[in-house]
Structures are given as structure tokens and as C-alpha cells.
Amino acid sequence: GESVGLHLPTLSVQEGDNSIINCAYSNSASDYFIWYKQESGKGPQFIIDIRSNMDKRQGQRVTVLLNKTVKHLSLQIAATQPGDSAVYFCAENGGNYGQNFVFGPGTRLSVLP
Amino acid sequence: NAGVMQNPRHLVRRRGQEARLRCSPMKGHSHVYWYRQLPEEGLKFMVYLQKENIIDESGMPKERFSAEFPKEGPSILRIQQVVRGDSAAYFCASSQVTQGATEAFFGQGTRLTVV
């Protein structure tokens, strides 16, 4: 289930189940979004991106859904594995090509054996 | 093709000293971004640079912090007279800007501890 910890919300899922991580973005001008995975002690790792002219994009075991009406982004991970345990961040570009990204607060995914 | 390289990985400084963080972007990338991350928080934008130019420094504190990306060599984030509150992980990202949206790749970060 999903719970809010001291700082990061945490999502716990059983190995093999599907995971859904949600993100509400803030700027209606944002037209490019990225999901990053960050493991402990490492830098953010690019997972998948989506532009605002799309509402769905699929990668290997991951799918990103974009709902511009409610400014909501989700990351679906199929058949979650122990190696998927990490903190996941969504990032939006605020409509600025090549400018900085604004990161969400992150969700910690914990995969249970 | 090496990724974004940051060094040092860990840096310990006493209050009042200077910290210099270095970032070499991916080959072919001419755009560098610096972000700061506190424990259990997201990344906060600090500064965006191109070669020899600061494009956007809106996220960088006005005092004690500076950044450069010279024609030759890595980008440098410099923090003068460090204080305990500067302790954080500092990440560098690079991108190859296209006319459309941009994908940025991150280094492993420098963890600064001020004692």
C-alpha cells in the first residue's frame, strides 16, 4: 500500500506485482516530462520521457501516462523486481526548452519478496 | 561513451573553507545544469550553463556560490566560506539541446559535508 513517511511517500509492492507511481505537476506550460530513478548514493537515472502531444508512452516494462487536464503523470512498472527498489522522481520542464527541470518530491518504491 | 563525470564523490570541508565541485559533461553535450539535493528531498535547480556562458542562475544563492563552464575543462561549482547548511548532494546533468524537448543525464553527484 501507499503511505506517507516522514519525508518521502513510500509505495510497497510484492515482487511480481505491477507498481503505479503518481505525480502531480505544477506548471500547465510544461510540455516535456521525464521519470527518473534514483538508487541510494547514486545520481538520478533516466527511465522514460513523454511530450505533451502524447498521453501514453511505453518502454521496457514501464509505461508513462500523462493527463494534461488534471496535470497528472504516472509511471507504471510491470512485474516489479527487487532491482526496481529506489526513489522515483517526475520532472517537468516548465515549458522552457533546454532550461531547468522542476522535480517532484519523489516516491520511494519498496519491493517485498 | 563515458557518462557525466563528477568529482570528488565525497568532499568534507570545515566551516569557512571553500568547496570546488567539478563536472565533465557527456561527450558532445554543451549544456550543463547543477542541482542540489537534501536528504529525502527532490532535486532543486541551481544554475544552467553553456560553454563560457551562464544562461540561468535563478536557483543559485546570490552570495558565496558561483559557477563556470570554461571553453576548456570541466564545469566548476564553487562555494565560498561554506556553512553547515551547505551540506548536501550536488548533482550535475548535461544535455544536447535540440529544437524540441531535452533529455538530461546526471552524474553520480558530489556529497559535501561541512563540519
Q: Can you give a write-up of this model?
A:
- The complex is a heterodimer of chains A (113) and B (115).
- By secondary structure, chain A is mainly beta.
- Chain A has strands at 2-4, 9-14, 19-24, 32-38, 45-51, 56-58, 62-67, 72-77, 86-92, 102-103, 107-112.
- In chain A, the strands form two sheets. In chain A, strands 1, 2, 4, 5, 9, 10 and 11 form a seven-stranded mixed β-sheet that branches. A four-stranded antiparallel β-sheet of chain A has the order 3-8-7-6, with no helix packed on it.
- Chain A is globular and about 40 Å long.
- Chain B is 0% helix and 50% strand.
- Chain B has no helices and eleven strands.
- The A-B interface holds A 6-8, 31-32, 34, 36, 42-46, 49, 51, 89, 91, 93, 97-106 and B 4, 6, 31, 33, 35, 39-45, 48, 55-56, 59, 91, 93, 95, 97, 99-109.
What would you say about this model in short?
The complex is a heterodimer of chains A (113) and B (115). By secondary structure, chain A is mainly beta.
The low-confidence runs of chain A, each spanning 5 or more residues with pLDDT under 50, are 1-6
- Which oligomerization state do the chains in this entry correspond to? heterodimer
Largest sheet of chain B: 7 strands, mixed
List the total number of helices of chain A: 0
Strand fraction of chain A equals over 45%
**Number of β-strand runs of chain A:** 11
Share of helical residues of chain A:
under 10%
The coarse silhouette of chain B is: globular
* Structure summary, number of beta strands of chain B: 11
Helix content of chain B: under 10%
Which class of secondary structure composition applies to the elements of chain A?
A: mainly beta
Instruction: Give the N-to-C terminal Cα separation of chain B.
Output: 36 Å
What ranges of chain B have pLDDT less than 50 throughout 5 or more consecutive residues?
A: none
First-residue to last-residue Cα separation of chain A: 15 Å
Instruction: Name the helix and strand elements of chain B from N-terminus to C-terminus, one letter apiece.
Output: EEEEEEEEEEE
- The averaged pLDDT of chain A comes out at 89
Largest interface: A-B, 27 and 31 residues
